[in-house]
Fold:
Amino acid sequence: MTRTAIILIHGLRGDHHGLLELAECLQKAGYDTYVPDLPGYGIEQALRDQSLEGYAKWLHEYVEKQEFKTKPIILGHSMGSIIVSHYLEAYPEDCSETAIFLAPIIRTEKGQKRSNRLAKMFLRSLRLLSGHSRYRLMKSRFVSFWISRILTYDRTRQKYIDEQHYLYSGEFTSTRSLMNDVRLSMSEQTICPKNRRILYCMGDHDRLTKVKNVKENIKNYPNATLSVIKGTGHLLNYEYPQKTADKITQFLEKKA
Structure:
């Protein structure tokens, strides 16, 4: 019997390692999982076109290469959910009608304006440094630790998360490609693709997206479901991989 495939797309600064625990949990639940590195991370070279259209085309080509017997389910985490949501709009025939947005990026109009200002300030500050200094700073343990602590809420596995984040969240090929992705992740949002059955799964203490913003955003989409994991932040894939996998499998099994 052919098992359903789930493709997991990671977020900003990370690579496939950040989603491996979740992928293993989904494997045990009966799914085949694929966890590629986005272009510009791990060993993958950055795209020349780092726009949403460029990423959507890359994901389309990745799916085609796998030659799946049945259409796969796509899961995107954080910036990955932005990429996946726009990809599903651009290539609606590629994948299953079901998709999963983990820790999606959804802002109010006011929040988006603030995010745009912060992005400009942050990128302007980085440009004051030399290329080598920028690269060292963004790969440093200090930056990794700072981001890890902000995005994590439950401290039970904090030392492990800090170490994993440091080992793998600096695996970008260049600061130029990273800065382009910072701009993308702060200026774009996760959209709700038409005619799709979508699970929005997030922590109730996610510091990048508020639960109320997601509820407001999807209220006009009857096929969208929000599942909130209590006591968890933006890195619920690290904090509670099994609980996150359980939420996903429960959602997927409801369709049967």
Observations:
- DSSP finds eleven helices and six strands in the chain.
